[in-house]
Design a protein that fits this description.
With 177 residues, this protein is α+β, with helices and mostly antiparallel strands. The protein contains two helices and ten strands; from the N terminus they run H-E-E-E-E-E-E-E-E-E-E-H. It is 15% helix and 28% strand.
């Protein structure tokens, strides 16, 4: 099995994942001619054509409270992870195979990224912390407070609070540190 994926294919998958996040309950994967890629920067033209169609990968994620979020391409495995936050699970899309359950009971995590060692970082909403999944599958807490109050949660939503950092901000700082 060839797991090498070009940047163009990865961006097509991430674009499709964006459609997945915005998808309503359709019940099956299909092309969505009404949706289109909006080019905000001409640099996008070097990666893909904004005229190509958007393909829905799946539907029914997020429950009544909202869509799926946070796509992360896992190059080595040739798959895309995304967060089904309100259903408290992480999903996996593999080209040619579709969407499957990757992990349940993830503390309604989002903000997926990887560190320089290839470990998965996630921003847990329920436990209000940033966690890292080690290569052996165990979980390490990277941050559970920043500037004293716990990270994440309603108190630190950017539109509701002006102090402290959310879990996503800490994960981003950790990733580039």
């Amino acid at each position: 099995m060839n797991t090498t994926v070009s940047r163009r294919h990865m961006l097509q998958v991430v674009g499709a994942a964006s459609a997945l996040a915005a998808a309503g309950p359709v019940g099956r994967a299909m092309a969505q001619p009404a949706r289109r890629i909006e080019r905000l920067d001409p640099a996008l033209d070097r990666l893909l054509s904004s005229s190509q169609s958007v393909q829905e990968l799946g539907s029914g994620y997020g429950g009544d409270l909202g869509p799926a979020e946070g796509p992360l391409w896992w190059k080595e495995g040739g798959y895309l992870l995304f967060s089904d936050i309100h259903n408290d699970r992480r999903m996996k899309y593999t080209p040619g195979q579709g969407v499957t359950l990757f992990k349940e009971k993830v503390n309604r995590a989002n903000g997926l990224t990887r560190d320089l060692q290839g470990r998965l970082l996630a921003c847990d909403h329920d436990s209000r912390r940033v966690t890292r999944q080690e290569l052996d599958g165990s979980i390490t807490v990277v941050a559970n407070s920043h500037a004293q109050p716990p990270v994440g949660g309603e108190r630190q939503h950017p539109r509701r609070a002006r102090t402290g950092a959310g879990a996503e901000e800490i994960a981003i700082r950790y990733d580039i540190a």
